[in-house]
Amino acid sequence: MPSIELDRVSKSYLSGQYAVRDLDMVIPDGAFMCLLGPSGCGKTTTLRMIAGLEQPTSGDIRVGAKVLDSVEQGVYVPPEKRGMGLVFQSYALWPHMTVARNIEFGLRMRRVPGPERDTRVRSAMGMLRIADYAKRYPSQLSGGQQQRVALARMLAVDPEVLLLDEPLSNLDARLRLEMRAELKRIHQRSGSTVVLVTHDQLEAMTMATHVAVMNEGLVEQLGAPMEIYDRPASVFVAAFVGSPPMNLIPLGNQNGAGLGAHLTGYLADLGGRPPEDGTAGVRPESLRLAAEADVPEGMWHAPAEVETVLPTGSSWTVQLRCHGTELFALTFRAFDAVPGSSTVVWAPPADLHLFGADGRRSEDWDLINQRPGAGDQTVRTGGVR
Ligand SMILES: Nc1ncnc2c1ncn2[C@@H]1O[C@H](COP(=O)(O)OP(=O)(O)OP(=O)(O)O)[C@@H](O)[C@H]1O
């Protein structure tokens, strides 16, 4: 199937409220696109418009040259003629049909012959690990099991485009992890296009080939997961993607002569013009802790006090106070400093992100960071330091 294109798509309601505003998006054939964002940002509305369950109030939706929706041209193709499979949070299984019959239903509707139906139902149940429940009715299943039946029902039909709205939300942590891997495998094997709605950034980072981060009906950034992680386009994206979240520090004198002023001085020494009323960001895993004498030359560094250490078994999150500001550092080596002890926190300049007063990423600072020499200072150690 050619790529799905959304061209200045908006959806507003009578109240005047916009669920989605001027959305431009290309979902290439075979992509795994995650629509990621907080509750109410317009993800589900976008998915429902692609499915044909909602009509845009302006803009066009196309698949290649074929127009699915166009307010101007008066075109609207109904959901059943779009060749897309849908799974929503509310799975809408037929209550009077067994699991196997529910999965088979779509195949019957498409007049798939009996023997092939059986093979496809068995294969889908195997993939989603629900073969043991084949003869049960939906009311005899847990929410997570019902969710897997809904996924199996859709996969059995083998649509060219899968539209998934929080399809893993009812699963426990282990099953969710397994299903993420399974969905990723299914996508890689089938080559179909997947559009998945989630508010879980880990879900987006682990499965997607493309992520669209949405905020209040607008797309803040669209890119590959690592691009979004490494170069967040705005303070919103920086704060939303990553766990623990990026440390964000108001620059200049916004907080008196605190950490912001300290960072501004350092950036100015490097030849950067820190954006006025801007924000600096540094990921917890980019913050290193050391004795002052051990900090390599040229690094940003400042004295800090350890407040709390939160070990998880494989990593240590360290809460620090630095020039009056709270920072979080993440380390993968045992860290057992006692609360109240002094340390020095440091980071290579290439690991600092700068955003202007408008919240957008500062391209000027990125250019300075890309100058020969600036990048050499980065010591990327895969998280271990
Ligand atoms: N029928 C409607 N009438 C008025 N406003 C609506 C309607 N449907 C959705 N909205 C509003 O549009 C905005 C976007 O809703 P949408 O369901 O797309 O968000 P979402 O990002 O999917 O949220 P969630 O993750 O909570 O499902 C919300 O502010 C919502 O209140």
From TrEMBL:
Q: Which GO terms describe its molecular function?
A: ABC-type transporter activity; ATP binding; ATP hydrolysis activity
Instruction: Give a GO cellular-component term.
Output: ATP-binding cassette (ABC) transporter complex, substrate-binding subunit-containing
**InterPro entries cross-referenced by the UniProt entry:** AAA+_ATPase, ABC_transporter-like_ATP-bd, ABC_transporter-like_CS, ABC_transpr_MalK/UgpC-like, Mo/tungstate-bd_C_term_dom, P-loop_NTPase, Transp-assoc_OB_typ2
Q: What is the name of the protein in this document?
A: Iron(III) transport system ATP-binding protein
State the organism named in the record.
Micromonospora polyrhachis
Q: Which SMART domains match?
A: AAA (SM00382)
Q: Which residues form the ABC transporter domain?
A: 4-241
Query: Keywords, A to Z?
Result: ATP-binding, Cell membrane, Membrane, Nucleotide-binding, Translocase, Transport
